[in-house]
Amino acid sequence: MTDTIILLLQLFWTFLLIGTFTIGGGYAMLSLIQGEVVVHHAWLSEKTFTDIVAISQMTPGPIGINTATYVGYDVLSAASGSHLLGILGSFAATLALVLPSFVIMLMIVRFYQKFKSNRLFEGVMGAIRPTVAGLIGAAAVVLTLKATWLPPEAGSILPSGLTIDIVRENFPDWKSWLLFAAAFAASWWGKVSPILLLLIAAGAGLLLY
Predict the structure, then answer these.
(1) What DSSP line would sit under the chain, residue for residue?
(2) Cβ-contact 53, 143 below 8 angstroms
(3) 45, 56, 72, 203: which could form a disulfide with 67 (CB 3.0–4.6 Å)?
């Protein structure tokens, strides 16, 4: 139980830091979340994190908050084996993520109208905007390229005797890259609705995989 409490506090502190130092919304914080939960703490595998991000994009709400909720549940439920503690992990991670923004906005909202035309304020915001674009680009690179791939012969044997392939690659084959290219083209040039793209991608996934 002590280990679970320590893990819960670590989870809260980690997402509190992410919420404090993230500028630019959910997509900008994905690279920070990945760096903490996958690389630094090794709470989740790269594949699990990518699946969580995909689910977070498909469910209602901001992607950063959704990701924190799913990560908190997955980490605590896997460590404790308890569904209730998983829910507590979701609450802790989500609260920690939104708390800094809530407090900071309460502090500065009354001063924004006064300082929005200030040259110093404009200079700071001018430097932050391209940084946000870089963080979003970093998240895209992490989710697309940072992975390792193990061939089918490296599969593991389950207790039931079934063999599964271990694939830790977000774009493991040409079909994934083709789907990515088609979705990008349809969204960028075809102006196809994201909802329609998700439905088509789900059908294509069932057919191809």
Answers:
(1) -HHHHHHHHHHHHHHHHHHHH--S-HHHHHHHHHIIIIIIS--S-HHHHHHHHHHHHHSSS-HHHHHHHHHHHHHHHHHH--HHHHHHHHHHHHHHHHHHHHHHHHHHHHHHHHHTT-HHHHHHHHHHHHHHHHHHHHHHHHHHH--EE--GGG-EE-TTS-EE--EE-SS-SHHHHHHHHHHHHHHHTS---HHHHHHHHHHHHHHH-
(2) yes
(3) 56
Facing residues of 164 across strands? 156
- Give the pLDDT confidence of 40-92 residue by residue, as tens digits: 888 888 888 888 888 888 888 888 888 899 999 998 988 888 888 999 999 99
Helix axis angle for 26-34 and 46-58, nearest 10°, is 160
Distance CA 40, CA 193 (A): 37
What residues contact 13, with CB distance under 8 A and at least 6 apart?
96
Residue 173 or 14, more confident: 14
Q: Which residues contact 204 (CB under 8 A, 6 or more apart)?
A: 179
**Structural domain boundaries of the chain?**
2-148, 150-208
Alpha-carbon distances of 199 from 101, 176, 206, rounded to whole Å: 33, 16, 11
